[in-house]
Structures are given as C-alpha cells and as structure tokens.
Amino acid sequence: MLSADVSLAPAAAAAAVRPLVRLRDVHLSFGSTPVLKGIDLDVFRGQAVTIIGPSGSGKSTILRCMTGLLRPQQGEIEVDGTRVDRLASERDEIELRKRVGFVFQQYNLFPHLSVLDNLVVAPVRILGRDKASATHTAYDLLKKVRLADKAHAYPGELSGGQQQRVAIARALAMQPDLILFDEVTSALDPETVGEVLTVIRDLVKDGMTCVLVTHEMRFAEEVSDAVYFTEAGVIVEHGPADALFRAPSSPRTREFLAHTQAAPEAERAALPRTPLKLDLRHFAI
C-alpha cells in the first residue's frame, strides 16, 4: 500500500496518499428500492481495484456513481479532487468524463465509422486535438490492443472480443486518469474472453488506475491490489486480493467464492451427453 514520505510537510503528505477515487457513505435508491446502502470505497492512483459479488448487488451502480451517470441521495463521491455528487452542470460532467474512461459490457462503437475513426473522433471533437496527432495515437493504441491490422475495418466485421478491445483502445485515446470496466467479458464467447483479459492485464502492469466489475474470479485475484465484495448494496468485506480470496473473514464471502469456483465444474458436468436437436427457425441470423 502507498505510504507518505515522512520528510513531506503534513499537507503534502496527506495529498500524497489521498485516494484518486473516494466514496463515503453513499446511498442510492431507485424509487422506494434501496440499491446502495452506505458504500465506502477507496482507489489509489496506480491501483487495480475489483468489485465482486452476486448479480444485483450494486456493483455496476457503484461505477456509474463514480462518473456521475447516477446521483446518490446521500454521501460523498470524489474523483481526483472533484466532488462528483455536487456536479452542477453538463459541462462539469463532460470535464469529469474526459478524465474517466468507461468500458461497458456492450461495446457501443459507432457502426458507421471505421475502427480508426472510432478512436479519433472523441479526442478531436472533445479534447480539441489535431487530427494528425489523434490518428498517430490511435494507431499506437491499436497496436497495444493487438488490432493494428483492423484499423480500416468496421465494427460489424469484427468478433465480439475484437470489438471490446477497440472499445478499450477508444477509452485510452482520451488519455484518462482512470478506467472503469463493467463486466466487459460477460457478453463474449469463451474463446475471446482471454484476448480482452490480456489487454486489461497489460494496462494494469503499465500502472493504469482501473476499477473492474467482473465475474472472472481467477483474473481478479491475479491483477487486483484490492477487492471489494458486495451484496444487497453493502460492502460485506474488502482487503488485499490475496487475503480476500485465500482467507476471507466473512462466511458470506467464503460461500460466494466457493460457489463461483465450483460453478465451472458444475456447468461441465451438466453438459448433455447426446447432441442437441435445435429448431433453427427460432434463431435469427
């Protein structure tokens, strides 16, 4: 964990260890349904923090609160000194989102633009970069996500894993301080999941600050500095990845991890032993 240089003045020392992202007592409800019930969470610069938990536990909602896409009814949300819960205008929200990348489960690429243009359009129109510079950066990023040969392809010509890697490159093109990944592999074919995880693993190794929501437990254990386990809108347990995955203190965390580790074996055991007969009339191509 980060530590302050004792030679620093008190104010400077405090700033040196101040979280890049800080949530305190965050409550959010949809109508009469409480979704988040007092969330406290810290992300320090250069960390990879993963939020795990069962479906409907509030994981994705936490990410959306970090970017101002959702506004809590109570609590404080701070990103690099900006009070997200107090943003007063659309302009303020845009300024925040210049610094925070968000990669969703669905790729949300512009289907009428080439892969290269998907990466160039936002830096030019929002950041005001010249097109030549933005294009050069885009080519570098496509190399980074191993898609340099797809620069002039269109999203519809790519696999799901390739589209998701383009979405990651597009987020990086904005040169964010922080990237949020919201279950980015859950809609992918199992054969392409590894391609996307490799890209995220490389970003973490390069020191990019990341917050991930994922059901890939082995990957979360491998790349995370800290892990938060959520259920029913509360943080049940959090701590270093090794400690939480290998020796969780909460019985509920132990139960959840045991279930997720057993699930792949159960799924394989449940596979049919005879070929399936499918009525293709029910499937759209």
UniProtKB/TrEMBL annotation:
Keywords, in A-Z order: Amino-acid transport, ATP-binding, Cell inner membrane, Cell membrane, Membrane, Nucleotide-binding, Transport
Localization per Swiss-Prot or TrEMBL: Cell membrane
One Pfam match: ABC_tran
Entry similarity comment: Belongs to the ABC transporter superfamily.
Tell me one GO molecular function of this protein. ATP hydrolysis activity
Q: What is its main location?
A: membrane
Q: Where is the ABC transporter domain?
A: 21-257
Return the protein name. Answer: Amino acid ABC transporter ATP-binding protein
Q: Respond yes or no to whether keyword Oxidoreductase is given for this record.
A: no
Assigned GO CC terms: plasma membrane
Family matches, as SUPFAM superfamilies:
P-loop containing nucleoside triphosphate hydrolases (SSF52540)
So which domain of life are we looking at?
Bacteria
Q: Sorted alphabetically, which InterPro entries does this protein's record hold?
A: AAA+_ATPase, ABC_ATPase_HisP-typ, ABC_transporter-like_ATP-bd, ABC_transporter-like_CS, MetN_ABC_transporter-like, P-loop_NTPase
Topology with respect to the bilayer? Peripheral membrane protein
